[in-house]
Amino acid sequence: MSDPYNIVDSLIKDYLHFRGFTSSLKSFEMDVGNAKDKKFKVDAVVDDIVSCIEKYDIISLRGIFEYLNVRVFTNLTTEQTCIARQLENDIYRLYLVNTIQNRKPSKSVEFFEKNMDFLRNNNQWNEWFSLPYINNPSESEVYKRYFTKQWHEILLVSLHNFLSIAFSRVKGPTLVECINEILKNDSIDGESSSNINDRIELPRSRVSSFHSFDELMDDFAIIAQATNVDRNKPNKGVLISMLKNIAGSRS
């Protein structure tokens, strides 16, 4: 199935281009490229986190979790919030262990310097400040389990599963919800999602595609139907109907 976020992004870029909002279009494309949510694709977010660990990029890693804490984890239950906090702590441990295993003492020290606001008064880290200065920490009773491949794998699988749950609790914006509804309904009707994507992503071509006055008036009738709705109360059903009719009238 087509990605609703890709479709919405295409619609927004098409609109900005059509209106001549060049600066807004460039800013939008830049923001899309730097988006930390990765369009709420769990695999992409986990890959991004692993990449930060492998590249010793603690700033970007912190940025990902700051985004998740503000935009995603606020929708969780109290128990789930505690799990999110624990996973964040463990991912930072994995980051630190990776610096030790690859003999990057400067990156270990940098981790504590850049992360002090998070680590301060955090009881889970009381024993970790001395880690960079311990010989063979992988043999220490305190740290050795964190150096095992099994712990690394279990942590990443747990993170993946948890993010799947967390993302499922995020309510998307109205336009994304409408596109999702269209994709779901048309998929049930047997229409290929790629065809739906093609129809929705090319609204500018509609200007020259009207074959008759009656066809043009049909589209105005669609818009007129929405005027009976209270403008102060956006109606998703009407928006879905308009999108489906406008997208479908050219198929």
TrEMBL record:
Organism: Parastrongyloides trichosuri (Possum-specific nematode worm)
Domain of life the protein comes from: Eukaryota
Gene Ontology cellular component annotations, sorted alphabetically: early endosome membrane; late endosome membrane
Single GO BP term: early endosome to late endosome transport
Name of this chain's protein: LisH domain-containing protein
Keyword Nucleotide-binding: no
Keyword terms of this UniProt record: Endosome
Residue span, ARMC9 CTLH-like domain: 52-168
Molecular-function GO terms, alphabetical: phosphatidylinositol 3-kinase inhibitor activity
Secretion signal, residue range per the UniProt entry: none
Subcellular location: Early endosome; Late endosome
Membership in a protein family: Belongs to the WD repeat WDR91 family.
Any Pfam family matching the protein: CTLH_Armc9
Keyword check for Ion transport: no
InterPro entries linked to this entry: ARMC9_CTLH-like_dom, WDR91
Principal place of residence: other
